[in-house]
């Protein structure tokens, strides 16, 4: 139960800030999602994957815009900020930009925020700094994650979990990204490490963040 999970987190000195819920639940039962988010004490409740067949396309993006605007409006009534976490496939070309541009510009900034995942921005060949500068104030949350050097990405939204490496040892220009994130008013940073070596890597990532200047 959400309340029990919240209690277990607090007992261990962990304060729940943001959580992900499935697209299908946001589409079909947003009121129940928000009930669970309130029970967890979340400030932010969002979605991290838009179901799609083959390449993510404009129709799927526009459908998500409708779902997100409705979810965001309902969440705002409960004083919760709805957000979407990018996952790489949204960078399909569209017009003069990408489908992520369409998703950002098509959603109401009052109701819909974004969580930038660094790996899922760099993996498809994008520059996190440029996106932070292009849409300032839309990114209150950030997943800090580094991508192993030499890995060539794509628009699939998938990569082997062993490609998650210690912050500062991969492809990311962390000082530049963190400096841009501060200017873009990112509020919360979460280390996300899904590798089998996460237990050993996360303390080293923390040490990197203590040393890095930004």
Walkthrough of the structure:
Helices cover 42% and strands 16% of the residues. It has nine helices and ten strands. The chain has a six-stranded parallel beta sheet with strand order 1-2-3-6-7-10. It has a two-stranded antiparallel ribbon with strand order 4-5. Strand 2, helix 4 and strand 3 form a beta-alpha-beta unit. Helix 1 packs parallel to helix 3 and helix 7 runs parallel beside helix 8. It is globular and about 40 Å long. The termini are far apart. The model has no long low-confidence stretch (mean pLDDT 97).
Question: What can be said about this structure in brief?
Answer:
By secondary structure, the protein is an alpha/beta fold. The chain has 9 helices and 10 strands. It has a single domain, classed as Divalent-metal-dependent TIM barrel enzymes (TIM Barrel, Alpha-Beta Barrel).
């Amino acid at each position: 139960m959400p309340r029990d999970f919240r209690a277990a987190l607090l007992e261990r000195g962990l304060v729940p800030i943001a959580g992900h819920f499935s697209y299908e639940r946001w589409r079909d039962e947003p009121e129940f999602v928000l009930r669970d988010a309130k029970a967890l004490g979340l400030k932010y409740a969002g979605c991290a994957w838009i179901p799609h067949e083959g390449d993510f396309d404009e129709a799927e993006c526009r459908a998500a815009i409708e779902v997100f605007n409705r979810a965001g409006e309902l969440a705002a009534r409960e004083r919760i900020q709805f957000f979407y976490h990018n996952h790489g496939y949204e960078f399909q070309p569209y017009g003069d930009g990408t489908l992520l541009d369409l998703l950002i510009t098509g959603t109401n900034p009052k109701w819909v925020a974004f969580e930038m995942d660094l790996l899922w921005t760099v993996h498809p060949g994008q520059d996190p700094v440029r996106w932070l500068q292009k849409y300032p104030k839309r990114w209150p949350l950030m997943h800090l994650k580094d991508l192993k050097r030499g890995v060539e990405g794509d628009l699939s939204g998938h990569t082997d979990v062993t490609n998650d490496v210690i912050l500062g040892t991969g492809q990311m220009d962390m000082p530049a990204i963190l400096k841009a994130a501060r200017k873009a008013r990112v509020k919360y940073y979460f280390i996300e490490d899904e590798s089998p070596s996460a237990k050993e890597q996360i303390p080293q990532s923390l040490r990197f963040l203590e040393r890095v200047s930004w």
